[in-house]
Write the structure tokens for this entry.
Amino acid sequence: MKAFRMLGRSIRDAVKSVIRNFSLSLASISCITITLIIVAVAIIASLNVQNFTKEIERDMTIVVFLDNDVTEEEIKEIETKIKRIENVEHYTFYSKTDVKKQMQQESEVFKTVLENWEDSESPLKDTFQVKVKEIEIISKTAKTIEKIDKVSVVRYGEGMVDKMVKAFSAVEKITYGVVAALILVTVFLIVNTIKLTISARRKEIEIMRLVGASNITIKMPFIIEGMILGLFGSIVPIIMVIYGYFAFYRNFDGYLYSRLIQLIQPEPFVYQTSLMVIAIGIVVGMIGSASAVRRYLKV
Amino acid sequence: MDLIRLKNVEKKYKNGVTAIYDLSLAIEKGAFVFVIGGSGSGKSTLIKMLYREEKPTKGQVIVGGLDVAKLKNKKVYKLRRKLGIVFQDYRLLPKMTVYENVAFALECIGEKKDAIRTKVLKALEDVGLKNKVHEYPDNLSGGEQQRVAIARAIVNDPKLLLCDEPTGNLDPEKSMEIMKVLEDINKLRGTTIIMATHDKEIVNKMKKQVITLKDGHLVKYKQKGTYVE
Ligand SMILES: Nc1ncnc2c1ncn2[C@@H]1O[C@H](COP(=O)(O)OP(=O)(O)O)[C@@H](O)[C@H]1O
Ligand SMILES: [Mg+2]
């Protein structure tokens, strides 16, 4: 009960002083707002990238083409060799005829062209499609397969995914740098806002000490003030996250460029992201106010 | 029983000034004690050690069973809740009314609203300010402001009231009014009062215990004392 009463008092004091130091509070809040908008965009982007690289990776397959003159027996041999590779999770064999059928299903043009080819003169090859356990070492696995006799070419979605992931991770690093710098500036501004509140209330603090207020009672309003700044600062970013992401998702029909790059469903994603944004805002506010209290409020 | 006990207390400030030398004394519960002496004799230093604004550099200061020197900074509030303090300059908050100033002391320690109301009104009645509850300090005379400060100091019904030159800014007439208030508090509430002053007339009129300090040394500790140079 007593704790609640004291908390109520702290919150009231904190709100009062946010209003009293309006211009500096507003500066802090704006800074938190900008920071959180960028943080939110970074969170949304990086979660989406994570999501669709996972999707793409799940689809990634090593395609093993066999030489034209490969015999039934040699195919068996190749199969056992592939089976023995550690990283291979699962494979399927497609004969020339299977490949032909598959391609004919896919397009009318292929259908007529392929109809006139005999199996013997077909440019198509027998193939194994191999799924791996660990995508990170797919290129190593591909190289191992390539060394097997009578295997001509091995293909997987090299390049594309690699390049994409690298590009995203570069962008991510830059974003982290910007966010870190912004958080620093924000914390600095909050420290100064709280410092001002503390000096405006020197007399009051002195009397609180004389009449026996505990340290936590003296410090709490200032810490809460920082948290309130953080909370206010997260309002605009959250609105932007919720409306912005819904609009973005609708605008692109849920995917970018190709069906391969699926965006995360807005619900409950935007709400989770909003919670993260609020939490970050409040924590940043608290860090600022706590360090101001530590520095300027010697109790 | 003794409320306060000092044993071989020395206070040397960081700048090398020794304000109190080897002071030992005991003050019993319910006493009214003047601490007298010229300017710079160590009166304020003694008072400050009693509410742990300053720590003794040697010896022991026991207040209400608490060893003040050993009290950690975080625990000082426990001592402060057992005592009230009044200064020469009142130290009221100008943006708060009389009522709010007194209530503030209780809010800070988490008292309930109903209890605050009863206690604040009682304290203001005891100092004779029941009709000025909603005034702001700036609209009050010096004597009245000091009475508000006294009300704030006694509102939590402390065992001990420390006063450092409470009449220092007041004319003799107002000073005697304050002394009347303090005497009533001592008699009716049984609060132990320690008051530092250099006002001869007051000391001589009141006929209370007197601790005389000179350049940091205890010169005399007398029952029903008078002011001696
Ligand atoms: N914070 C301090 N730092 C250094 N010296 C101090 C401090 N406070 C008081 N003194 C010195 O200690 C001595 C006693 O001061 P004080 O206790 O204030 O005396 P009084 O209240 O009797 O006038 C004086 O010489 C004063 O200059
Ligand atoms: Mg003094």
Q: What stands out?
A: Chain B has seven helices and ten strands. Strands of chain B lie at 2-12, 18-28, 32-36, 58-63, 66-67, 83-87, 160-164, 192-197, 209-214, 217-222. The CA atoms of residues 143 and 174 of chain B lie 6 Å apart.
